[in-house]
Design a protein that fits this description.
alpha+beta, 5-stranded antiparallel beta sheet, two-stranded antiparallel ribbon, 7 strands, globular
Length: about 140
Amino acid sequence: MIAALGQGRVFRAHDCADLPRDKGAYVLLIELDSAFTGRFSGRDFTLPAGHYAYCGSAHGPGGIAARVSRHFRCEKKPHWHIDQLTIAAREITARVFPGGNECDLAARLGNAGAEPPLPGFGSSDCRSCTSHLLALR
């Protein structure tokens, strides 16, 4: 399923210094080793233990390096919904796509069989995607 993403470079938390500063997109591969309960759109949700992919964009200052480095940090004030999962994750890796588009990445994963466990999660400003969080089988 991850092969559907193509040739994005893979990074782990200890690789942050090597992350590109370009604008683009990324996919966080998140492993939850136990069920996780959080809050989204005013209601509680529970995700079972498993593997998830979150497709995001990085168009601000510092580009991909700034955004993905933040996602790798355990100690952070939650700002985005995905922060709940990155804080709870057992492991996070990232595939980065300078110049890429998060919706294209989500579509590739969806076409490969990944399913959105929480419609609207990470895609509240997107008109084409059901979710930017996908459960990997």
